[in-house]
């Protein structure tokens, strides 16, 4: 199978398995797991933040951030197709007791004027705006890079109103590699940032959230409350360290493969590439093929290719290091034959 469902399907490399085997561990709830401490320090340094916390998943990291920044009854401004709103089972409302206020973005980027307009006034009827969430790259916008300038403008507005900004940077390294901008530069316009180590970077498990020392102290407590205080977790922090320090530059190959795939599929008259491919995601509209997304995925499966449903007529291909350039050619070739 050529697995283009997600970059989450990547399996740990040999170096990661070796790191897991050799990891120095201790009880992380006591702060004694050296592999976790090393990972957290390195991540904080790379992101330009005071401190960082290793969490089990991107979803857990995002939700801990919301829980840490907000209190029940507040409102969170978020782009209407952001993962934290669209794909996290309404966790913001279920756990943090907040109400989302969505804004439609352009290629995932919210217009700063609209963000400003959505901030609630001091009024007895209104919820307080407790947080603004950004996502870079933006998954449902097809791996779009949110421009640094857009982040800066929103952050400036947020600071003027004393509102924190959280960045879902599940794929921030993709944005960084594709734009040549260090992750630190994106992270400077946030109060907290979540990065996934288990997507294109290939760690078996884990994400990082980073922010000020105070933020991380409180986030650590939220993680414990949620049952996320793990013990000899260096076993997974050590491969995550390899992901963070050795796997970033190779994301460029995923981006090249995504562009190659988009160019190839674009030549097939009944397929429409919906997004401008900047990173590792290709969204394809199959409406003119006579198939819908679900039946098209079955056709693909029959050809040994996996992708995911992204709407009634849209499917998503996500390149990742388990897929070679040659396999991308195979996908294009097979679809040329079938359509
Ligand atoms: N996204 C997954 C699915 O949930 C859709 C994928 O295959 O792309 N933020 C963003 C922007 C994400 O894309 C994801 C995962 C997460 C957060 C959640 O990360 P995990 O899966 O580690 O909880």
What report would you give on this structure?
This protein has 339 residues and is of the alpha/beta class. It has two domains: 14-246, 3-Layer(aba) Sandwich (Aspartate Aminotransferase, domain 2); 250-338, Aspartate Aminotransferase, domain 1 (Alpha-Beta Complex). The chain is 42% helix and 16% strand. The protein is built from 14 helices and 13 strands. The chain has helices at residues 14-22, 34-47, 58-69, 83-86, 91-96, 112-118, 148-160, 172-179, 183-187, 213-225, 234-246, 251-266, 293-302, 325-338; strands at 2-3, 51-55, 75-79, 99-103, 129-135, 165-169, 192-196, 207-211, 272-273, 281-285, 305-306, 308-309, 314-318. The strands form three sheets. The chain has a seven-stranded mixed β-sheet, with helices on both faces. Strands 9-10-13-12 form a four-stranded antiparallel β-sheet. β5, α7 and β6 (165-169) form a beta-alpha-beta unit. α2 runs parallel beside α11 and α3 (58-69) packs across α10. The longest helix has 16 residues, at 251-266. The chain is globular and about 60 Å long. Bound molecules: ligand TLP. Ligand TLP is lined by residues 6, 8, 57-59, 62, 83, 87, 135, 139, 168, 170, 196, 198, 207.
């Amino acid at each position: 199978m050529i697995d283009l469902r997600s970059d989450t399907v990547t399996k740990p490399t040999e170096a990661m398995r070796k790191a897991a085997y050799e990891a120095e561990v201790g009880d992380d709830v006591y702060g004694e797991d050296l592999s976790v401490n090393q990972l957290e320090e390195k991540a904080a340094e790379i992101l330009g933040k005071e401190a960082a916390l290793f969490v089990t998943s991107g979803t857990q990291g995002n939700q801990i951030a919301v829980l840490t920044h907000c209190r029940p009854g507040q409102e969170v401004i978020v782009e209407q197709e952001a993962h934290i709103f669209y794909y996290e089972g309404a966790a913001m409302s279920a756990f943090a007791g907040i109400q989302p206020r969505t804004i439609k973005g352009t290629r995932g980027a919210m217009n700063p004027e609209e963000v400003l307009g959505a901030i609630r006034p001091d009024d007895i009827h209104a919820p307080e705006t407790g947080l603004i969430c950004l996502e870079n790259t933006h998954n449902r916008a097809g791996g779009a890079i949110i421009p640094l300038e857009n982040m800066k403008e929103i952050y400036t507005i947020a600071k003027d109103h004393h509102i924190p900004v959280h960045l879902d940077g599940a794929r921030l390294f993709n944005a960084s590699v594709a734009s040549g901008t260090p992750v630190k530069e994106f992270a400077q316009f946030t109060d907290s940032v979540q990065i996934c180590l288990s997507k294109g970077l290939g760690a078996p498990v884990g994400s990082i959230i980073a922010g000020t020392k105070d933020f991380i102290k409180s986030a650590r407590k939220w993680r414990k409350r949620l049952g996320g205080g793990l013990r000899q977790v260096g076993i997974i922090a050590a491969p995550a360290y390899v992901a963070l320090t050795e796997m970033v530059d190779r994301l460029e190959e995923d981006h090249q493969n995504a562009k190659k795939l988009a160019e190839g599929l674009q030549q097939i008259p009944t397929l429409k590439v919906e997004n401008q491919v900047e990173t590792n995601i290709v969204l394809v509209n199959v409406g003119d093929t006579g198939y819908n997304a679900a039946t098209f995925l079955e056709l693909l499966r029959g050809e040994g290719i996996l992708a995911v449903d992204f709407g009634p007529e849209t499917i998503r291909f996500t390149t990742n290091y388990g897929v070679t350039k040659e396999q991308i050619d195979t996908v294009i070739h097979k679809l040329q034959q079938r359509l």
